[in-house]
Amino acid sequence: xxxxxxxxxxxxxIAIRPGPPLSGSVTVDGSKNAALPLLATAATLxxxxxxxxxxxxxxxxxxxxxxxxxxxxxxHPVGKPSTVLxxxxxxxxxxxxxxxxxxxxxxxxxxVPALLAVHGRxxxxxxxxxxxxxxxxxxxxxxxEAFGDRTLVNDHGYSVEAGESRTGSVSVMLPFRSxxxxxxxxxxxxxxGRPLRLGQPNLSPEVLSVLHALxxxxxxxxxxxxxxxxxxxxxxxxxxxxxxxxxxKVEAGTLACAIAATRGNGLIEGVRSKDxxxxxxxxxxxxxxxxxxxxxxNVRSKGTRPTQRPLRAIASLSPRGxxxxxxxxxxxxxxxxxxxxxxxxxxxxxxxxxLIPQLTRLGADIRQTSPTQCxxxxxxxxxxxxxxxxxxxxxxxxxxxxxxxxxxxTLGGLEQLRRGHADLPTKLLALGADICEVTP
Length: 440
Description:
The structure is a single chain. The protein is 32% helix and 23% strand. The protein is an alpha+beta fold. A four-stranded mixed sheet has the order 21-22-1-23, with helices on one face. A four-stranded mixed sheet has the order 2-14-16-15, with helices on one face. Strands 4-5-3-13 form a four-stranded mixed sheet, covered by helices on one side. A hairpin with an 8-residue loop joins strand 4 and strand 5 (84-87). The chain starts with 13 loop residues before the first strand and ends with a strand.
């Protein structure tokens, strides 16, 4: 028997109506936040790398375009659109200035080590991506300076010039657990071929995916809460090296919150349960039964009684902490749950100024106690109206809110949502959500 495929939603505005509880099964795409540093790692190693489960969202497509501009070959095996073969740069190109495309995504800064390896210099604009507050690069620059590189900044961007080649171990202590700076240090050590000791590292699943990829390529890695260590391989590995992008933990968490908000039952496949453990803990705290299998989540909220316990959703960079990208979806869910709930995200200080005004348009009563912290008391009845996805996570939270709002919610700005998710509305549609395209 052939299963009918749910038509993809391609319009820039969609309409969402409340409907029956979501049910069924859906498979998440590869993780954008893991794919971007893995692509940069492939470029840094200067080997033939085959990367599977690559998502088709716009930010990843921009990164692939940047790699091509920098001289790397990008091909897809026949019949495998989600698999990418990354070939080393030919070194014949002049050092590129990647302003137009690089300015659209934050992850362009991951390319600095690969550009240094081939051209000795990297010139890039200030990172783009979601406008969710100032997220400086000072730690990145300190990492490069620890390797003897020279950094220059101006109003438009920055440049890094490779220092003289050195030997011996490099030690860097991060003042806080920055994911971007941790990956910058790892990749800079790779092109230098030098051992690294990184204090207070970020140990998110995305960083651990980079470490695992380097292990496959022969590097020795060890990491705990205090120190991450890296040592070069004794010999170059056989080619090609094959990696896989892990399933998108944030997409899985968003879908789980959507199922819970509608009091449905659903199976979310393709995500490692350990990557979503903080989200699962939050859902269980609220009384949402979730079975965390090895590569799937089974949400069983139909007919259950919420605990009425207040949720404290505080974004954290610490190991096993709540990823900041989980917080918006949990906020949308908590609007329908009994209790007074606390939300805080000091990592992305502008996120609440994007999210809360859009939820307020739907009738949400959310009290901001600071620019990065707020409280709300549920349950609240939302009323459908026109809202805008001002960034990726605001868009996904508004999808959840629209599933329970009375009347019709129209969501614009889907180009923002597609930067992180190729087809999140389509996945909700497959679970039975009442979503349709709005044509001009």
